[in-house]
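Example 3.2
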Amino acid sequence: MAELTPLNTIASEGKLTLGLVFPLESYAGSVPQMQDQEELARQAEEAGFKALWFRDVPFHDPTFGDAGQMYDPWVYITHIMNQTKDISLATGSIILPLRHPVHTIKSINSIQNLSGGRLIVGVASGDRPIEYPALGRAIGSKSELFRDSYRYLQALQEEFPTYKSEYFGQVVGNIDILPKSHYKTPFLVTGHSGQSLDWIAQHADGWLYYPRNIDYLKKTMGEWHNALQQAKQSWKPYMQSLYIDLVIDKPVEPSPIHLGFKCNPDYLTKYFDYIRNIGVNHVIINLKFSSLPIKQTIEILKNTVLPHFN
């Protein structure tokens, strides 16, 4: 397996890059329209965003309030891959306990090779409890399911692998998974996924977390660096999501929205600069609550915020 990795296209120590998560639209409720996504993806790439992120939401739970981009992530990644050129394609995040590792690694390796090494894989244990019984999984075992699946995925990248899984079956060296990836696929753990931070620091290629206030972010960043040090690991990236509602008609004080804030480009630039100095390496921007048309928002970010980063 070649030691080429897509991760360094979006994350490096001391720097910050920006990405966008699908759907690239604002919408009320939980179900988006998914209109003009291909055109907006191309616009985002041309603007200088470094990654497009894809959700894994098996079921529509109306009480949760967000169905993601609705389409199967592997199918939709392939579709957007063929509409763009070089931008990284990232999952945020594949729910490991609810997918068989054999199918997951088959999809990962296929997309990795067909895209020319553009895939970054965020993984998680899931945050919608209703999905577990629907897929015959015990939610009380989701931490163990996640860890077992993660290890199985790593084993399956070897030639004629041997791995005995407690939950997903076993391979004993007499069959193989094809294709093998020509690239070293990076795996990012989302939240804690039922694991200790020490485990994540040891086994993951980076950590995906949620937007928090600055004091909490500083505390979390300190814990991440300590965990890396304890695990005798070198630097690994820290990434987070953020909802924004951009305004330009007049200077305004930032105001909170769900998992983010409403603000002007100047404040957003200062905020990103500040969290870059704390140690955040990539921010996944969600435009669900955008007041402006998405094309306009991307253009504004291109002209005002992106030149300072990426």
